[in-house]
Structure formats: C-alpha cells, structure tokens
Amino acid sequence: MIILALDSSGLVASVAIANEEALLAEYTINYKKTHSQTLLPMLDEIARMVDLDLSNIDAIAVSAGPGSFTGLRIGSATAKGLGLAMNKPIISVPTVDSLAYNLHGTDKLVCPIMDARRDQVYTGLYEFIGDKLSIISSQKAVSIDEIIDEINKIGRETVFLGDAVPIQRDRIKETIKVAYTFAPIHMNRQRAGSTAALAIEYYKMGQVEPAAEHKPIYLRMSQAERERAERLRREEKGD
Prior knowledge:
Strand content: 25-35%
Structural class: alpha/beta
Shape: globular
Distance between the termini: 58 Å
Number of strands: 10
Number of helices: 7
Oligomer: single chain
Strand order of the largest sheet: 3-2-1-4-5
Radius of gyration: 18 Å
C-alpha cells in the first residue's frame, strides 16, 4: 500500500509518501508562500527523489479541515484533481486529528490548537490507547477558555501543539489548573507524514471516498458567507 498525503490547512505546506512500513518522503515548508504555487512542485520533487510513478499509489490522503479556508480549498482541489485524473480514492483526514497524531504514543492528554480567528481556536482532545488515537472531544471551533475548562475538568497533564500556541500561550498559563507542556518545534505544526500515517489506518478500515465526492470540512462559515448571511438577515428585517 502506498499513500500520497497533502496538507495545506494552515501556513504549513506539506507533502508525504508513505507505505505501511515507512515514511518514504516528506517535504514540509512553514513559510509565507502560496500553497497553489508550492504543492505540486513539492509533490513532483519527492516523487522524483523516490522514483515513484504516481499511478502506483493506492490512495490520496488530504488534511480535509478545519483550517484556513483558502488553504483547505487548495489542498482539496489538488487531491481531487489528482484523484480524478488517476482514478484513485481519497482519504479525508480531519486536520486536528492529524495534528494530534504527531504525538503518537504519549501518555498525556493531547490538545491541538489552531488559530481560527474571531477569538476562537480549532481544537479537540485526544489520547493514545496502545497505538490507537482515541478521540475524547471531537474537533470543533471554540474559545481557548472553553477547551481549557474541559481540560481542567478532566484533570490530566496535557500537551499543547499547533499554530495557536504562540497566540494563546499566556491565556493558557493564566487559566489552566493541571500540569502542561508545549510540543517541541519538530512536532508542533501540521505534517503530511502524520496525515499519511493516520490515513493508512483509515484505508485499512475502508474509510475512503471517490474523488468526485470529496469536499473540505470547514466547521463554520467563511467571512464572506457570514457577511452574506448578515446582509440577508438585515434585508429580511428591512434594516
């Protein structure tokens, strides 16, 4: 089994190729570049480096959301286009789940936090039972105080990771009542390698979809959609 994985859900752009035995290649950039300009060249580069004919992959995994609306659209469109062109299924991996998978094997509670703006984070709570990722609280968009309140009620030592850590670090320190740490730099952002590893488990369970049916997971409306809904609401009230 060979899985191609893509992640462009945030500032990070990441591409990986993996099988059941190893992560064969991973190309990750955490820099302000347009994902639409980087993903396919990154894919071409790692495929060339490992002498991979893309027609030999079994499925395309993509970090399907939540995350940046533009980034998710680019990643999903890339995965969908490749899937349709090569007649390969897609494995949709929830972004927050994939981020949590960076810390595979930890005995601590895992809390990914991604910046969702509007005073919210995309987050969830996870633990590892043996070698399996277990979801305690599914991914969602909430305030940092809400997720910290959940952690305090559970009462377990927690590891935080994600691009919202620098933004929310002080608030975490002010409100948390349990022992906590922050993941080191090589584990604290999205990685297509983790998306690929989790996708392999999904593939074994048959959790795949035809490329034509794939769509991102946004969790909430985009700013444009919110503005349109508000405009329609005002028009209905005659404001």
